[in-house]
Amino acid sequence: MNFFKNRTVVGVICIVLSLLICFAVTPLFNAGISQKTNIVRVAKDIKAGDQITKDMVQSVEVGGYNLPENVLKSKDSVIGKYAAADLSVGDYLLPSKLSDTPSAENTYLYSLTGKKQAISISVKTFADGLSGKLMAGDIVSVIAPNYKKQGATVIPPELQYVEVIAVTASTGYDTDTESSDEKSSAQSSDDEKSLPSTVTLLATPEQSKILAMLEADGTMHLSLVYRGDKENADEFLKAQDDALAKLYPEESTGEKTESEVSSDTGSSAAGQGAD
Questions:
Q1: 15 touches 21 (CB < 8 A)
Q2: 110-127 tens-digit pLDDT
């Protein structure tokens, strides 16, 4: 211990340690801080549920120090996915912020193929929408009072069997996808079940036109036809598709093609020449 009582020796040791820190430890630390890496960062604000496109994100070079280990570094691993939360410009992207599938309340919109459309109709009273008990997947008939101003209450043949794909409350949330927190909050403020504001139906263009007309008239009533497994529900929808095919046959089946018209014209002219 007498060795450390010598001020000269202690001073030399301190100098050696200082040099070691300056020329060995510090450069290694600085190298770690200055090491660059490419990451994916948000280029414009993204709302929860939005599908991410290439213009929404950018690849930038940043210092690698203190970055999360699972930060995403390739745009290909981000584009096409869905935001699981609201994202702001400059945010790093982590797997937990993304989803491979759209949010629950939007799933049905991403399943549209172009043959049918999603169209919403207003529910003005409990009675109009089966006392608020309609659910996605239900098969309903649309009842039209005073249909086409003719005084009769009918179920239009185009709207015998229509599929419900969403029931939306006045909060803007679909009633079957509201979070438990939102539901408990709503129940604490109002013990009564809130009135659904709209019902979204899966319809053909022809059906959509009639639904839009009924919506404009403000007279429409939904009756539940079937609720159950999809296989049985598809039987009702197939019956409706068959009915629509008879009501709206393809125009090409009843018209002659241009070549057929030309052929008929030529034959007629030849016949007249022979006469």
A1: no
A2: 777 788 999 999 888 767
Among candidate residues 81, 99, 117, the one where a domain is terminated: 99
Q: What is the spatial distance between Cα 17 and Cα 6, in angstroms, rounded to a whole number? A: 17
Tell me the two tokens of residue 54. 């290439």
Claim to verify: residue 92 and residue 115 sit in the same structural domain = no
Quote the CA–CA distance of 197 and 167 in Å, as a whole number: 8
- Per DSSP, 23 falls in state I
Query: Are 194 and 83 part of one and the same domain?
Result: no
Whole-number Å distance between alpha carbons of 206 and 211: 9
Question: What are the pLDDT digits (tens) for 34-54?
Answer: 577 888 999 999 987 788 999
Count of domains in the chain? Answer: 2
Q: What letter represents residue 88's amino acid?
A: S
Are 44 and 156 within one domain?
A: no
CB atoms within 10 A of CB 52: 20
Q: Do the beta carbons of residue 164 and residue 137 sit within 8 Å? A: yes
137 and 76 in a common domain: no
Structural domain including 167 reads 106-249
Q: Are residues 93 and 180 in the same domain?
A: no
Residue 145 and residue 221: Cα distance in Å, rounded? 8
Beta bridge partners of 51: 82
Q: Where are the alpha helices (DSSP H) in 35-132?
A: none
Tell me whether residue 187 is in a domain: yes
14 vs 50: CA distance, rounded Å:
59
Q: What is the pTM of this model?
A: 0.55
Burial (0-12, 13-18, 19+ Cβ within 10 Å), 48:
middle
